[in-house]
Amino acid sequence: MHSARESWFILLSIPFYAILIGAEIILSNWQQRKFYTLKDTFQNVYLTLINASLDALLRWAFYVSVLMWAWNRHFFQIENAYLYWFALFILEDFTFYVEHRVDHYCRIFWAVHVTHHSSEEFNLSTGFRSSVLQPVYRFIYFVPLAFMGFHPLDIVFMYSITQTYGILVHTKYVNKMPRWFEWIFVSPSHHRVHHASNTIYLDKNMGMCLIIWDKMFGTFQEEVKEVPVKYGLTKPLNNAWHPGKIIFHEWQSIGRDMRKKVSFATRLKYLFMPPGWSHDGSTKTAKQMRKELTEVKS
Predict the structure, then answer these.
(1) Residue 2 pLDDT more than 60?
(2) pLDDT tops 70 at residue 6
(3) What is the DSSP string of 113-175?
(4) pLDDT mean across residues, the chain
(5) Which of 186, 176, 248, 256 is nearest to 219 (CA)?
(6) What are the residue boundaries of the structural domains of the chain, listed by start?
(7) Is the pLDDT of residue 73 over 80?
(8) Inter-axis angle of helices 264-272 and 107-117, to 10 degrees?
(9) What is the C-alpha separation between 229 and 196, in angstroms, rounded?
(10) What is the mean pLDDT of residues 210-231?
């Protein structure tokens, strides 16, 4: 029953996405706004197919079994169905925030997540530009939820629902939502900031559905009218259309840094410090870049 529910959800969501993306393509081209290019859109499809295949393989072969093991040892159970699903939504959205923040602040995980940020376009298909290798470790963040009494297949189902919302905020067609909405929920404006390479926007607005986590933990940034969003990475990729390089380019950079003539402790820092960290200051983290920008302005 649990697996059939998610299968139906996925089957129904495919035509829903197809209609919305098709409409955005037609409208943006008709208005001469050109939010889509064929090459970038096909790359998004390619990346999400690999991600989905890896997720399907690992789901039944490995990580659902780990979550089931944890659930069989749960120490807590919510009996009320409404409270159960509400609590699962809140807690799972928070675990996504934690995961997403780690992905941005720890280079070895950024090497996985960077693929999602590599496009210089921003449209609904960008939501499908998956962090290909993320299914290898994402389930670890859900283990505490299973120990808390949330069934593994409910966890997977809720992730599919919240991910659907996360895809829908990848659009330029919505300027601002009502103020009350933007106070609580992630909006397209918030998520445009998240995909920006402008210094003031880096590593901001990590939430999937709720923006309250960013406001609580200091990672919130409003979209500033005077600073138009520039999408993509701070350093554009060479050969960005290569099917392997688009997934593994940051791993190659890590490999080059690990071969430097530095101490073992410094090599570990190249793995676990934030992206951009360097022992000699030759490259900068987002925090360092923001500090330099503030100093220049003052």
Answers:
(1) no
(2) no
(3) HHHHH--S--SGGGGG---TTGGGTGGGGGHHHHHTT--HHHHHHHHHHHHHHHHHT--SS--
(4) 93
(5) 186
(6) 2-103+121-184
(7) yes
(8) 30
(9) 5
(10) 97
